[in-house]
């Protein structure tokens, strides 16, 4: 029996197109998403009170789905604050600085250190953790400050965040929207993240060295102190031997976490919980050692700082995630299944089936569309706010072509994070630019060509994997 689309499907599709249009114009999507939720609720319940209540309930639903991700990022940020202020972060990376003896070694060394750090601490805290220590070393051996910013940015906000294999915030969002297990999206993203990372960083390094040889390089330095200098003012005294011991213990604890993930086969929320619990333990230990009799109060202060950061980052994400969750199981949970036609598998699945029946699609069209969709959703500079849309569109196209759901979802995620997560949008580049004292606009300009080349090659790769 052929499934007939009802007004609910068309309204949902219309709001997807509208949200894309708003993103292209670099405007905020919260209002559009709320109106979309209200419209869907009004059609489903035929009740003004039910549709208005549905807005709030959809926010609650989205928050419940995302709360683990919000908490882990908040806790990691809270922990990073105390590590920076005590100088433990310097001790942790100090042994690695001896290897940064040439501009090339400094670029790749800073990048790889940033990538590993960002897997565990997330990129923005990671920049603060290592930037203040590694930047002076890089400049001393001849790597320009802008080159160091590029390395931290591309490896941290690009490679590490687009895969997000430890904290698993990005794959959680896209997998939920696509109706897939987090593990399948992470597995599918591995070849795409590798291709994107290698192509982009090699292109960026080659262009930097070429411009430096030709005298075309502009360092984009800005006046004033860097964020690293500002951080120095808030230092907390801690005995040197304690810092040395903690600088060894903290990485070891996270290494034990990674080993535990493989040994115990922990994935998704279980893996996140292990990292989060370890971070809380480290936060408590270091805070009590650093602040002593004021440690009880300071622990709360650091947690407040962390949660302020977490909810500031995810504030724009919740409304758009609430809308796109309605494309799947959230709709029946909030409004019931009566508004959907008999045999419906959810709004997005229904649209995918209809698309397959009426529009000729193939792997190439689907891959290009997901890259463009992901890139557009990143234009707001968040990287996270629109990846639910990428997951939703991936599910729709995968249903239409009959394969490649995980690969298309991962492709949309990679494109969205690389564009909006902090490599091309100037206002998202501020952490790396500030710590290095360079212009975020100049950093975005330097990243533009390498990232676009990387996206093109990664899209072609995805065509063969779908």
Automatic annotation (TrEMBL):
Keyword set includes Transcription regulation: no
UniProt keyword terms in alphabetical order: Membrane, Transmembrane, Transmembrane helix
Membrane-spanning intervals of the chain: 6-24, 31-60, 66-84, 104-121, 127-143, 150-168, 188-208, 245-264, 270-290, 302-326, 364-384, 396-418, 424-441, 448-465
Name the UniProt record assigns to this protein: Transporter
Record lineage: Bacteria, Bacillati, Bacillota, Bacilli, Bacillales
């Amino acid at each position: 029996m052929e499934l007939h689309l009802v007004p609910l499907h068309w309204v949902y599709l219309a709001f997807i197109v509208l949200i894309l249009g708003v993103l292209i114009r670099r405007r905020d999507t919260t209002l559009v998403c709320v109106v979309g939720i209200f419209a869907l609720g009004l059609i489903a319940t035929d009740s003004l009170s039910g549709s208005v209540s549905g807005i709030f309930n959809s926010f609650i639903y989205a928050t419940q789905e995302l709360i683990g991700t919000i908490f882990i990022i908040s806790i990691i940020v809270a922990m990073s604050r105390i590590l920076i202020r005590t100088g433990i972060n310097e001790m942790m990376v100090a042994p690695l600085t001896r290897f940064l003896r040439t501009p090339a070694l400094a670029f790749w060394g800073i990048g790889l250190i940033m990538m590993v750090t960002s897997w565990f601490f997330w990129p923005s805290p990671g920049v603060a953790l290592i930037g203040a220590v590694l930047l002076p070393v890089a400049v001393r051996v001849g790597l320009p400050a802008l080159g160091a910013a590029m390395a931290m940015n591309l490896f941290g906000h690009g490679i590490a965040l687009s895969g997000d294999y430890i904290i698993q915030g990005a794959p959680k969002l896209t997998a939920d929207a696509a109706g897939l297990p987090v593990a399948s999206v992470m597995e599918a993203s591995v070849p795409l993240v590798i291709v994107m990372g290698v192509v982009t960083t090699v292109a960026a390094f080659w262009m930097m060295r070429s411009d430096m040889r030709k005298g075309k390089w502009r360092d984009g330095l800005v006046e004033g102190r860097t964020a690293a200098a500002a951080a120095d003012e808030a230092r907390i005294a801690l005995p040197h031997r304690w810092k040395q011991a903690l600088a060894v213990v903290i990485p070891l604890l996270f290494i034990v976490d990674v080993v535990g993930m493989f040994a115990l086969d922990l994935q998704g929320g279980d893996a996140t919980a292990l990292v989060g619990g370890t971070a809380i333990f480290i936060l408590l230990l270091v805070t009590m050692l650093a602040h002593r009799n004021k440690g009880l109060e300071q622990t709360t202060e650091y947690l407040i700082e962390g949660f302020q950061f977490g909810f500031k980052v995810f504030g724009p994400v919740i409304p758009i995630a609430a809308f796109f969750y309605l494309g799947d199981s959230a709709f029946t949970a909030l409004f019931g299944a009566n508004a959907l036609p008999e045999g419906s598998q959810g709004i997005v699945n229904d649209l995918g089936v209809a698309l397959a029946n009426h529009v000729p699609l193939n792997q190439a069209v689907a891959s290009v569309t997901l890259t463009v969709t992901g890139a557009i959703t990143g234009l707001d500079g968040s990287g996270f706010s629109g990846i639910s849309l990428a997951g939703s569109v991936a599910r729709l196209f995968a249903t239409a072509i009959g394969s490649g759901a995980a690969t298309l979802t991962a492709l949309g995620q990679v494109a969205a994070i690389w564009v909006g997560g902090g490599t091309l949008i100037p206002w998202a580049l501020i952490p790396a630019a500030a710590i290095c004292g360079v212009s975020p606009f100049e950093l975005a300009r330097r990243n533009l060509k390498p990232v676009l080349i990387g996206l093109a090659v990664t899209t072609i790769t995805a065509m063969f994997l779908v």
